[in-house]
C-alpha cells in the first residue's frame, strides 16, 4: 500500500501512514471500530485521521487489502492443483479472519466490499474453478457459493454450539462444488485434490 502523503517535515517519517492505520485497526474488534477509537490507538487527533481516510468504510477498505493479501496463496491455480489451491485458500481465510475479532462477521454482513482487494480474491478463485473444468457461468456461481459458505461458517464460529468442524464442512462444500451441473460429470482432478485434503485432515495438522 502507498504510504506517501501528508505534510511531514523533510527527513522525518509521517506520523500516520496507510499501513499504520490498517495495523491499528486490526488490533481490536473491527465490527465495532469507530474513528475516534482508532485515532486514540494511533495517538493522533480525530481530524488528522480524516486527512488519510475519508470515513470508517475507508479504514475497513485498508483492512480488507491487508487481509486479502494474507490469505491469497502465492502460487497460481492450475488444472493439477486447483482443488488443493482452494483448500489452502479456505484454510488461510479460516486462520486469518478468525484472528481478527469481528472481521468474519463484518465480511458476512451485506455491505460494499472493497472492489480492488475482493476483486483479486474473486478473480483468483474463479480462475481455480475454471482450471478445474468449470465454464465461466459455473465458475462464477461456484465462487459465490464458496465465498459465502466459508465466510458464513467463520462468522458463526462460537455462536453455534454444535457447528461441524471446519475440515468436515470444507470437504462437503468442495465436494459439492467439484461437480458439474446435470449429468456432465465431475470436474477434472476431483479425486486428486480430495486425496490431498484427506491426507491433510488425517495428519492432525489442523484444528478448529
Automatic annotation (TrEMBL):
Q: Which domain of life is it from?
A: Bacteria
Chain residue ranges for the region called Disordered: 184-208
The yes or no answer to whether the keyword Transport is present is no
Which keywords fit this entry according to its UniProt record? DNA-binding, Transcription, Transcription regulation
Q: Does the keyword Metal-binding apply?
A: no
Quote the InterPro entries the UniProt record gives: Homeodomain-like_sf, HTH-type_TetR-like_transc_reg, Tet_transcr_reg_TetR-rel_C_sf
PANTHER family, per database record: HTH-TYPE TRANSCRIPTIONAL REGULATOR RUTR, TRANSCRIPTIONAL REGULATORY PROTEIN
Name the UniProt record assigns to this protein: TetR/AcrR family transcriptional regulator
